[in-house]
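Risk register update: the risk of archive-format incompatibility is retired. Evidence:
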Amino acid sequence: MRSGTLGTVSIDFEHSVEIDRPAAEVFTYVADFANNPLWQSGMVACRWTTEPPCGVGSTYAQEARFLGRRIETRFRVTEFEPGVRISIESTQSTFPIQVTRSVKPLGDGRCRVTAHIRGQPTGLLKLFGSMVKRSVAKDYGTLKRLFEV
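Archived output:
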């Protein structure tokens, strides 16, 4: 994370899940943020605000619900290594956040997906860091089930 981007970080954790599918297939899916509502609870809508292909500087907007609150966020892709890693950073949000999703092949057509989440929630959201962690774990469990059906 660049210095000063998010101020004092109060959430900083990683979550990984192994998926019985090829890394390239899983990366393509998780790097297309338009898929987020299909596997992330509380996600209402995501739409790219720049034209494809995805790369550093690409932007998208999302609408989510968390603890009954509507959260609108705009993101910018800050790192993109095709097939390996994508990092995003909120540019406009009530919950400043940075997320890195990486996918590593494990052999035998399996991979490990890791999410590194860093953020500075504001207002009442400051109190719910553990809820964010549980929500992320649940979402990545859903992602695993989607691919292993």
